[in-house]
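Q: Could you fold this chain for me?
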Amino acid sequence: MEQTKAVFFDRDGVVNTRLLGNYVMRWNEFEFLPTLGEDLKAIKAKGYLAIIITNQRGVGIGAMTQAQLDEVHSKMQEHLDKNFGVVFDDIFACTDADTSSPRRKPSPAMLLEAHIKWGIDLSNSWFVGDAPSDIEAGIRAGTKTAFLRNEHETAPETATICINFLSELLTYL
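A: Sure. Below is the predicted structure, expressed as structure tokens.
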């Protein structure tokens, strides 16, 4: 029997525009990256689960509430469903304020939680991120990694591939 495979997504900078020096605290601050809906639909059509793995320290330090984070994620899912007929299968968020939290990326803990919950074959899965900590978490969990290039971070040499657009990942799936 074939095991489940997944594409794991960092959120800020991969799913939506990153607000530098701030947190996306409300739905009106959330802006999908171009083509995210179409790309997500294509990834799911290839038989992959789509799961967000995100550090959301803003909750832990009190900049926003858990309810605000939940509302952003709920509206994100509603928008994707309404406009593209697709949603993320799951969202794992580390809201701990402590940067040494055992769940916080670059720890692979949230990917391992998803692996257990969904029966995911990590070796046939991908983690797409825009920061070195995303790539490290993917490597430590045993996934292939795709670094989404941006002007804020240097691509880690350890990434399986480097891409300029999420759609480029489709040729590797």
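A (continued): The chain has one domain: 5-172.
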